[in-house]
C-alpha cells in the first residue's frame, strides 16, 4: 500500500500523528515501529517518518540501544502546562490512596474519551499479589474492564447500543467474552448495584470493580476502580469493596460540581 502525504492532506497528517501518539502512550514499555504500524493500521514507512519528525520536536523518544519508542520530554512539558485546566489527577489522588490503603488492592483513575477509557493514575495496594492488566496510558473500549462498564452503564440506552456496535472489533481484541449480550447483562448489574464488576473477562482470575464519577452535567466522565485476583473479590468482601468505591466516587463527583 502506498500512502501519499501532500500539502492538501494536512488534516489527515494531524489525525495520523494523534493516532500514533496515542498508540505510543498505550504501552508502558514502549513500542517498536512494527508494533505501532499494527496498532494504527499505518504502513511502517509512514510510522517511521512520523516518528522521526516527532522525535526532532521532542514529542517521542527512543532510548539509546532500544528499538522501542516512548513519549518524549516535550509532551511532559505540554502536559504540565495543561494540567491546571484538568486537575483531576490531583483531585482523585486522596481517593485513590484511601482506596488502596483500605482495601490493599491497586486503585486506578480512568477517564472517558469518546468510545474508550484511558487510565490516568494508579496507586498500588499493599497486598503482594496484584493484577497487571491495567496501567497508566492504557486505552480500552467502553464495555471492557470495570471502568468502561461503570461509565457505559450510566449512558442512555441508544448511546450504549451505538457504542457496542462501533467497538465490536476493538472489544474482540480483548477476549471473546466481551459479547454484546454479556456486556448488557453486566450493565444491568451496575444499574442495580451501583458499581461494576469485571469477572476476569480479560485475563482469567484477574478481577476488577469500578464506580463512575460524574461532572456538573451529570455525565459519567471518570471512573475509580480496584483490581486484583479473584479470591479477593468474592463473597461479602465484594460488597465492601463496592461501597468503598461508591463512597469515593460520590466524593470526587461532588468536588467536580455534581449534585
UniProtKB/TrEMBL annotation:
Domain of life, source organism: Bacteria
Alphabetized UniProt keyword annotations: DNA-binding, Transcription, Transcription regulation
Occurrences of domain HTH iclR-type (ranges): 11-73
GO biological process terms held by the UniProt record: negative regulation of DNA-templated transcription
Pfam families (alphabetical): HTH_IclR, IclR_C
GO MF, any single term: DNA-binding transcription factor activity
Annotated IclR-ED domain residues: 74-258
UniProt-listed SUPFAM superfamilies: GAF domain-like, Winged helix' DNA-binding domain
Designated name of the protein: Putative IclR-family regulatory protein
Species whose genome carries this gene: Kocuria turfanensis
Amino acid at each position: 500500500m502506498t500512502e501519499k502525504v501532500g500539502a492538501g492532506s494536512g488534516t489527515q497528517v494531524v489525525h495520523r500523528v494523534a493516532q500514533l501518539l496515542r498508540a505510543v502512550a498505550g504501552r508502558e514499555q514502549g513500542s517498536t515501529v512494527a508494533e505501532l504500524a499494527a496498532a494504527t493500521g499505518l504502513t511502517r514507512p509512514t510510522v517511521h517518518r512520523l516518528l522521526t519528525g516527532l522525535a526532532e520536536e521532542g514529542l517521542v523518544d527512543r532510548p539509546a540501544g532500544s528499538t522501542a519508542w516512548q513519549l518524549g520530554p516535550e509532551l511532559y512539558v505540554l502536559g504540565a502546562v495543561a494540567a491546571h485546566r484538568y486537575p483531576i489527577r490531583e483531585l482523585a489522588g486522596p481517593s485513590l490512596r484511601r482506596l488502596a490503603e483500605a482495601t490493599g488492592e491497586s486503585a486506578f483513575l480512568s477517564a472517558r474519551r469518546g468510545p474508550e477509557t484511558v487510565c490516568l493514575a494508579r496507586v498500588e495496594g499493599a497486598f503482594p499479589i496484584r493484577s497487571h492488566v491495567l496501567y497508566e496510558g492504557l486505552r480500552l473500549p467502553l464495555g471492557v474492564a470495570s471502568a468502561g462498564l461503570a461509565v457505559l452503564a450510566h449512558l442512555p440506552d441508544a448511546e450504549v447500543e451505538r457504542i457496542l456496535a462501533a467497538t465490536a472489533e476493538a472489544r474482540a481484541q480483548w477476549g471473546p467474552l466481551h459479547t454484546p449480550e454479556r456486556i448488557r447483562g453486566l450493565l444491568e448489574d451496575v444499574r442495580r448495584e451501583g458499581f461494576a464488576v469485571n469477572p476476569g473477562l480479560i485475563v482469567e482470575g484477574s478481577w476488577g470493580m469500578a464506580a463512575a464519577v460524574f461532572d456538573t452535567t451529570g455525565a459519567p466522565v471518570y471512573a475509580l476502580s480496584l483490581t486484583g485476583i479473584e479470591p479477593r473479590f468474592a463473597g461479602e468482601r465484594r460488597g465492601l469493596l463496592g461501597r468503598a468505591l461508591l463512597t469515593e466516587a460520590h466524593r470526587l463527583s461532588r468536588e467536580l460540581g455534581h449534585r
